[in-house]
Amino acid sequence: MGPPVTLVGRSLVAGTAEGRTVVLEEPLSFWGGVDPRTGLVIDGHHPQHGVSLAGSVLVLPAGRGSSSSSSVLAESIRAGTAPVAIVLSEPDPILALGAIVARELYGSVVPIVALDPAAFAVAAGARALRIDGGAVEPR
Amino acid sequence: MELTADERAMRDGRDGEAAATAMRILVETAEVMGASRLLAISRAHIDGCLYHGEAGLAFAELLRIQGGRVAVPTTLNVASLDLVHPGRVRLDAETAAAGRRLMDAYVAMGCRPTFTCAPYQLPDPPVLGEQIAWAESNAIVFANAVLGARTERYGDFIDVCCALTGRAPAVGLHTDEGRRARAVVRIDADVRPGLLEESAGLAALGTVLGHAVGTRIPAIVGLPPETDADGLKALGAAAASSGAIAMFHAVGVTPEAPTLEAALGGGRPDLELVVRAADLRAARDELGAAFDGTLGAVSLGTPHASATELDRILATVERDRPVVPVYVNVARDVLASTDPERLDASGIIVVSDTCTYLVPVIADAEGCVMTDSGKWAWYAPGNLGLRPVFATTRECLRSAALGRVWRDDALWDPR
Fold first, then answer.
1. Whole-prediction pTM value?
2. Looking at the DSSP assignment, which residues form a beta bridge with residue A128?
3. How many CB atoms lie within 10 A of CB B70?
4. Pairwise CA distance, residues B152 & B132, whole Å
5. B29, B153, B173, B245: which to substitute to probe chain A, counting the most A Cβ within 10 Å?
6. DSSP labels for B52-104?
């Protein structure tokens, strides 16, 4: 392995955060897919059903489905069960909006970054990530 | 992102604190959507009035306390309570109180208390080419496909930001390029024409589309030219439930598709498929296969029944009396134009302001619930643990009169 490289993506919601990664293999709809009271993945069809997202840097290929996912992410941030940051492989306005509104209401910042596929694959292989704006640093 | 002088002034507080908050959030989200500017909208439809938790209520009350007033005529989607029929929704007192506060917050900001998922049934619907910001997946697809009005897929939070500012991101379905079909779906000749006259047949077709086309806009070839608004409503609602469809064209039926070439806008499709009778039958059985246990209830009107649909349901139950409860979701505005004595005498249970797949209304449904709605069948099991059997309206009401599941299987056979 070479020295760790900082990946650069598109910052959707600005901020800094650091944590262990939870890497999801498939897209996830927060509405119907995450319980904001516990932070657990509750979508029975998802391969990582039962995994906790709380406090993690969530590495998620894409959001999916309902626009009510904005509400569920905002509610998770309020309840303290949300990821500390989200790394995506494509921009997702629905998740970004949830984080923007939670910041507006509660002052809690959950940064969201979109990476290109090659950089996303590197992030998905990291045990921990540090996010600073569009910069994603494997730890 | 380029803002006009007017938009900058709004962001900087000229029109009050709530409009400034809304403009800031709208601009940040519009940038994520890839917009380089905003455009003016003429109306909005908000679905943030359904209670999902404290954050949604906190947001609405923040905007109300900041003096929020909608900048364009704004209607409200279904909520968590039926204010027309108090007591019909069985929520715990705390959730009911929070749900009521949320409804009140939006009304206080100048939204019309329509509480319907079918705002296109209200007088003065949007027209061809009109730029609007609508939330609620079935309303979005109806506005785009059937009315030819232009809205992106808006939802919680962004809907009220658009309403308070009178602006939306100038991207996607708001633009000519974003409305072109990218998939062509042909209905095979083995599908019985009678099936495509039934809302359930069209909902089965919508379910197939939702699975098959991903985020592409489909152009459907072979839909009968006389397919009416209620049928297109059923198709769109099912397509937006099983998939991510926010727009479709039906050649010779919808306003932007006089021909297949027009729907494709000069481009070429990257997906072509044929839908056969067997595909529609498979979709029907996926939504709710036959069940020989108890029939607990029938639920119709998802999305909310039109005046025409309600009249047809009433005429049927007047001839053929149900022996199990028949629930029909109807907008309060549509209900207001229906004879209350006729409704009372019919014995059907009308639900307004909300929907039987969202909140607990159907009391002690032992066994299955029959529905003609693809959307209801898609969501009710997960939301409420109800077991659907999906069938045509006629099959549902005949079953209600017999007290057991009855289906006319021949309709779904290949020709």
1. 0.95
2. A20
3. 23
4. 9
5. B29
6. --HHHHHHHHHHHHTT---SS-EEE---SS-SSSTT-S---HHHHHHHHHHHH
CA angle, B172 then B56 then B82, to 5°: 100
Max Cα distance, chain A (Å): 43
For residue A56, indicate whether it is catalytic. Answer: no
Q: Which of A11, A52, A66, A71 is catalytic?
A: A66
Domains recognised in chain A with CATH numbers: 7-138 (3.50.30.10)
Helix A93-106 and helix B54-65, axial crossing angle in degrees, nearest 10: 60
The tens digit of pLDDT for each residue in B211-253 reads 999 889 999 999 999 999 999 999 999 999 888 899 999 999 9
DSSP string, B363-377: TT--SEEEES-HHHH
Separation in Å, CA of B255 to nearest CA in chain A: 27
Which has the closest alpha carbon to B158: B319, B25, B337, B257? B25
* pLDDT grade for A65, boundaries at 50, 70 and 90: low
Q: Produce one character per residue of B121-146: b if its CB has 16 or more CB atoms within 10 Å, e if not.
A: beeebbeeebbbbbbbbbbbbbbbbb
Determine whether B326 is exposed, middle or buried from the number of CB atoms within 10 Å of its CB (0-12, 13-18, 19+).
buried
ipTM: 0.92
Predicted local confidence at residue A21, as pLDDT: 98
- What tokens appear for A136 in the block? 């994603």
In tens, the pLDDT along B369-392 reads 999 999 999 888 888 888 999 999
Residue B237 CB neighbours (<10 A): 28
C-beta of residue A127 within 8 angstroms of C-beta of residue A139: yes
H/E element, B280: helix B277-288
